[in-house]
Every structure is written in structure tokens, then in C-alpha cells.
């Protein structure tokens, strides 16, 4: 079990911030539909799953804006892996 943070920034073309957030919302919907545990925060979404599942989801989330006519996307993807596995709840147990 690993934890992955995914932050997608669609850059072009957008006439307004509202249009950009429609792309971000579509990416979040893809994460919600993945079946993996997730938590949405202000700057990224954290997902929990097996290594291959999390990497495949990050790839799909990165590619989705292009399917929605975005010309450029920056995705920041960070993975936390621990021998024996790690969960979102375990990592946050001292902060909730």
C-alpha cells in the first residue's frame, strides 16, 4: 500500500478560472470513480492503493485534460511508500 499526492494544473487555453476548474473537477471525478481511497485538499488530492494502481491513476489524471482540449498540463505527483505499506489514516493519526 502506498500514498500518492496528485496535483494537476491545466494551463491553456482558458478564458477564465472557472473554465480551468472544470478540468480540475473532471480530474477529481476520475479519482472518485477509481475505487481508491482519496482525500481532497486545497492544493492536491491524496490517493491510497497498490503501487501500480496509484501510478496508473496518476497517469490517467494527467492525460485527462488533454482529452478535454487542454494544450498544456503540469502534474505534480509524489509517492510515499513504506516497507509493509502505509495508509492515509496511519500517516494522519496524530493530526486528526
Quick structural gist:
The protein has 96 residues and is α+β, with helices and mostly antiparallel strands. It is 40% helix and 31% strand.
Task: Describe the overall structure.
The chain is α+β, with helices and mostly antiparallel strands and 96 residues long. Helix content is 40%, strand content 31%. α1 (17-32) runs antiparallel to α2 (51-67). The model has no long low-confidence stretch (mean pLDDT 93).
How is this fold's topology laid out?
Blueprint: E1 2-12, H1 17-32, E2 37-40, E3 45-49, H2 51-67, E4 72-81, H3 88-92
Antiparallel strand pairs: 1-3, 1-4, 2-3
Helix pairs in contact: 1-2
Secondary-structure-derived class: alpha+beta
- Measured by DSSP, the beta-strand proportion falls in 25-35%
Shape: elongated
- Taken in chain order, the helices and strands follow as EHEEHEH
The profile of the biggest β sheet is:
4 strands, antiparallel
* SS summary, helix count: 3
* Helical content band: 25-40%
Separation, N- and C-terminal Cα atoms: 21 Å
Any key phrases for this structure?
96 residues; alpha+beta
Amino acid at each position: 500500500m502506498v500514498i500518492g499526492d496528485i496535483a494537476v494544473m491545466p494551463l491553456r487555453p482558458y478564458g477564465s478560472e472557472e473554465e480551468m476548474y472544470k478540468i480540475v473537477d473532471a480530474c477529481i471525478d476520475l479519482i472518485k470513480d477509481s475505487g481508491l481511497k482519496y482525500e481532497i485538499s486545497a492544493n492536491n488530492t491524496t490517493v491510497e492503493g497498490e503501487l501500480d494502481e496509484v501510478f496508473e491513476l496518476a497517469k490517467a489524471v494527467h492525460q485527462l485534460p488533454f482529452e478535454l482540449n487542454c494544450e498544456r498540463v503540469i502534474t505534480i505527483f509524489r509517492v510515499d511508500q513504506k516497507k509493509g505499506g502505509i495508509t492515509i489514516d496511519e500517516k494522519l493519526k496524530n493530526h486528526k
